[in-house]
C-alpha cells in the first residue's frame, strides 16, 4: 500500500471516528459529567425484556455516563406494590418505575408521572441525539396524556399468541391418527371448537404413548389474578366480549340487565370453553401464572397454548431453557365467527397487546439522570439485541434489523406476525380502577376454576359485584 | 422529686417508641376506619363515612368467610401443635441416643423465615416438580393438587404451620416440664395414681400456665398469618386459604381501600382480644374464682 493511500485511508477512518462514534460517546459522557456517581433506582417486573435491561443495558449506561443504576426486577405483584407505595407516599425511592400498559390510566389519573416530552424540552442539554419519540411503534400511544405528551418510554411490547408444537403438527403418525379420528387435516385451530378437538386429541395421544403431553396450556392459577387476566384479555375477546364486558359509555354497566356483557351468553360460553380446557391441561395449570405457562410450553408438556409473546424467543431458540427449540409454530388465536372481521374493521380485537414503559415518578430525586437512562434504552442502536433476547419491539425500525429478521425465522415469524397482525390485538381498557375491580371479581373467578361455582353463576356474581364496586368507587352513578 | 425525673428520663425512649410505633398507628387506623378513602376512586380524597365501613363488614361474605377460615385454621393448627409439642417435650425429657442432635434439628424450622417456609412448601407441593404430589401419586395413586382441591390446600397450610411452629410449643413445655418439682409426682406415686391420673391431676395443672402462654402466642400468630400462606397458595384455591390477614392485605394494598381495610383490621384485633380473654376466663379466671372456697 502506497503512502498516499495509507494517508487517505487514515484520514477517512479518522473522519468517520470523529464524525460518528465520538459524537455519541461524547453526548453520554458529557451529559453524565455533572451526574457521575449518582445512583438511580428502578423497579420492574422480572420478565425477559426487564432482565435484559438489568443485565446488559443498565451496566452499559453506567459505563457510558458514570451514572449507577440499581435495577430491581421482582414479581408482578411486588413491583406494583412497591411502585405505588413509593409514588403515593412521595418517598422518592425509585427514579423510574415500570408502567404496565393497563396501569398507565391509574397512574396518569393520580398524576404520579413526569411529562417526559415537557421535561426533555425544558432541559435541552439532556436530549440525546438518537432519541426520537417518532421512532416508537403505535404502542407508545398508550403512554401519552391527553395533549399527546409522552409519560413513559416503551420498553417492551408484544402480543399474546397461539403457540403450537410444529413438530407434532407435522408428524405423519399424528396427522394420520388425527385425520382418522376427526376426518379433517390437523392444522392450527381457527375456531374454539377446533382448538378443543386438538386439545382432546393430544391429551389422549400423550396418555396412549405414555408421555407427559397435554392438549393445551391454561393460565388458571386459583389464587393469582393471572387466571382472570387470561380470561378477560385473551379468551373473552375471541368470543366478542371486549373491555372485560363493561360498557364505559353506558354508566360502566357490567350486567346484561344494565347493558353490560360481563355475564352475557357470549361471556358464559367463553368461560365454559376455557374451564373445559382444564381437563386437557397439565396438572400444574391451576398453579400457573404467565411465567409457568411459558415454562410448561418450553418443557414440551403442552401441544398448544396462548403464551405471552415476551417468552416466544427463548421458548423457540434457547436450548438452555427450552426443550422445544426449533419445534415452535406461531399463529393467531382461535376466534368465534365474526370476531376476526370485527377486529379487522377496528371494532373489536382478538387478544392482548401487552407491554410496558418506564416512567419517572414526580417523587424521583434524580429526574435528570433517570431521563438520560430512559433515552439510552430508547436508542435504535440497542434495540435489535434486546428484541432478540426478549421478543419485544418498541421501535418501528427494529423489525428490519438483520438480527431480528434472523430471529424471526427461528421463531416461525413471531415478529412478522406482531408487525403485520398486531393491529388485531389491543391493550387493556382505559380504566383507572384495574386493581380495584380485579380484586373484587377475581376471588369469585377462582371459585369457578375450582368448581365451587358454575361458569354462569360466577359471571352473574362477578357482574353484580363489579357494578357494586364501581358504584362504591364513584364511577358508576 | 429528682429520682422521679431521672426515672421518667430513663422511661422516655421506651415511651417514645411505644407512642410512635404503637399508639399513633393505632389511633391513625382508628380514625381512617371512619372514612371512605380509596386513592383510585373517582374522588380519591377522604370522605367521612361514619359507621358505614363497619356496617359493610357485617355483610361482607368475603370477610366472614376469611374469618371463618382463620378460626378453623387457628383451632386445627394450635390444638395439633399443643398435643405434638407436649409429646415431643416428654420425649426430650427422656434420655436416648443422639438426643442433643435431634433436639437441635427439631428446632431448626423456628429459625427459618416464614416466607422461606412458604416457598419451600410450595416447591414441595407444586405439581410436576414437587416430591409430595409425585410420591403420593406413585405410591398410593393419590392425586394431590393443592391448587385445585380446597380441602387439600387448607390441610397443607395447617400442616405447614404445625411443622413450622410446633418446636416453639415444645421448647416452652420442655422448659416448664424441666422446672417442675419432683415432690408432687412422688406423692402421686405413693398415693397409687396411674399415668393418666398423674397426667390429669398433677402434670396438666402445673403445665397450664405454659400451655396457656403457648396457646395465646400461637393463636394470635395464627390470626395474623400472611406470608407463609401467601407464598404457598396465594389464598387459593378459590377462598379456601384466604385467611383474614391475607384478605386485609388485599383490601388495603392492591385494592387501596384504606378506610374499609382499617375497619377490618380493628375488628380483627378486637376479635383476637375477645378470643384470648374468653380463653383466659374459661381456663384460668374461673379456677381462680373458685379458689377461695
Automatic annotation (TrEMBL), chain A:
<feature type="signal peptide">
    <location>
        <begin position="1"/>
        <end position="25"/>
    </location>
</feature>
<keyword id="KW-0813">Transport</keyword>
<protein>
    <submittedName>
        <fullName>Extracellular solute-binding protein</fullName>
    </submittedName>
</protein>
<dbReference type="Pfam" id="PF13416">
    <property type="entry name" value="SBP_bac_8"/>
</dbReference>
<dbReference type="InterPro" id="IPR006059">
    <property type="entry name" value="SBP"/>
</dbReference>
<keyword id="KW-0732">Signal</keyword>
<keyword id="KW-0574">Periplasm</keyword>
<dbReference type="InterPro" id="IPR050490">
    <property type="entry name" value="Bact_solute-bd_prot1"/>
</dbReference>
<comment type="similarity">
    <text>Belongs to the bacterial solute-binding protein 1 family.</text>
</comment>
UniProtKB/TrEMBL annotation, chain B:
<dbReference type="Pfam" id="PF00528">
    <property type="entry name" value="BPD_transp_1"/>
</dbReference>
<keyword id="KW-1133">Transmembrane helix</keyword>
<feature type="transmembrane region" description="Helical">
    <location>
        <begin position="198"/>
        <end position="220"/>
    </location>
</feature>
<dbReference type="InterPro" id="IPR052730">
    <property type="entry name" value="Sugar_ABC_transporter"/>
</dbReference>
<dbReference type="InterPro" id="IPR035906">
    <property type="entry name" value="MetI-like_sf"/>
</dbReference>
<feature type="transmembrane region" description="Helical">
    <location>
        <begin position="263"/>
        <end position="285"/>
    </location>
</feature>
<keyword id="KW-0813">Transport</keyword>
<feature type="transmembrane region" description="Helical">
    <location>
        <begin position="7"/>
        <end position="37"/>
    </location>
</feature>
<feature type="domain" description="ABC transmembrane type-1">
    <location>
        <begin position="67"/>
        <end position="279"/>
    </location>
</feature>
<feature type="transmembrane region" description="Helical">
    <location>
        <begin position="66"/>
        <end position="89"/>
    </location>
</feature>
<dbReference type="InterPro" id="IPR000515">
    <property type="entry name" value="MetI-like"/>
</dbReference>
<comment type="similarity">
    <text>Belongs to the binding-protein-dependent transport system permease family.</text>
</comment>
<protein>
    <submittedName>
        <fullName>Carbohydrate ABC transporter permease</fullName>
    </submittedName>
</protein>
<keyword id="KW-0812">Transmembrane</keyword>
<feature type="transmembrane region" description="Helical">
    <location>
        <begin position="153"/>
        <end position="177"/>
    </location>
</feature>
<keyword id="KW-0472">Membrane</keyword>
<feature type="transmembrane region" description="Helical">
    <location>
        <begin position="101"/>
        <end position="121"/>
    </location>
</feature>
